[in-house]
Amino acid sequence: MLLKDKVVLITGGSSGIGEAVTRRFIEEGAKVSIIGRSIEPLIRMKDEFGENIITLQGDVSNYKDNERAVEATVEQFGKVDVFIANAGVFDGFAKFADVSPTALSEAYDYLLDINVKGSFFGAKAALEELQKTNGNIIFTVSGASFYPDGGGVWYTASKHAQIGLMRQLAFELAPKIRVNAVAPGGTITALSVIPPLRSFVKTVDNETKASKIKKRNPLQLAQMPEDHVGAYVLLASDQSRAITGEVISSDGGLSVRGLG
Predict the structure, then answer these.
(1) Vertex 150: Cα angle to 170 and 259 (nearest 5)
(2) Which of these, 8, 71, 136, 188, has the minimum number of CB atoms within 10 Å of its CB?
């Protein structure tokens, strides 16, 4: 029960890595509030976890929706100890040279509004409550935050931007608030390609995806969402009170893959 009595707000908490983190946090004793776009998984999560969870439909690129999520969390659970900016979308490895200027612009607005602006907005909306609890912020970043070919240019740029945001906030918000990140590697989820780029990429089944992921990391793991949750638990807990401005890479060892 490492998170007993903690109150956590997670964006994108009803699917993929966000859902796995939500489930583990509740197991560890936390009360969790999640915001997502699709109503069906939110209803399913509420039915399953009852009074331990709040589910809110919203768009993280809309500041008011982030503000509403914070207000609902405080109204129900009394505080916010941890904010996790997890909501994200993917560009499907679309190639810059192949995409039309119109689609390029539409993809930029769509993807960076969610991946980057959503992180800005969520952190800002939660800031006042986190100051009251000496809380912490965790960003879901990516191997693409450090290396090329973890996605296309839109996704890679967005994940690099989140690292800059995390580090600057860790500097500005100390000593009251800790700010860190988890960088998952290639993970088998239902993450779909954003609409502006769907005609420029090929759909890949999970078996093919898993095979490619295994070949890219030294541990030869096609990671599942559950493989990453321990890093979030550590950063959200009081056991990491001396850690800020850091990234925990949960990627099968991408940084040591060498020249082979």
Answers:
(1) 105
(2) 71
Question: Which among 63, 110, 147, 155 is annotated as catalytic?
Answer: 155
pLDDT of 206 reads 86
- Non-local CB neighbours of 205 within 8 Å, separated by 6+ positions: none
Q: Which of 172, 78, 181, 160 minimizes the C-alpha distance to 127? A: 172
Judge whether 155 counts as a catalytic residue: yes
**Over residues 106-129, mean pLDDT:** 98
Three-state helix/strand/coil letters over 119-174: HHHHHHHHHHHHHHHCCEEEEECCHHHCCCCCCCHHHHHHHHHHHHHHHHHHHHHC
Residue 191: alpha-carbon gap to chain centroid: 12
DSSP helix/strand/coil, 10? strand
With b meaning 16 or more CB within 10 Å and e meaning fewer, what string describes 168-184? ebbeebeeebbbbbbbb
Instruction: Assign 57 a pLDDT band (cuts: 50, 70, 90).
Output: very high
**Section 134-150 average pLDDT:** 96
DSSP state of 187: B
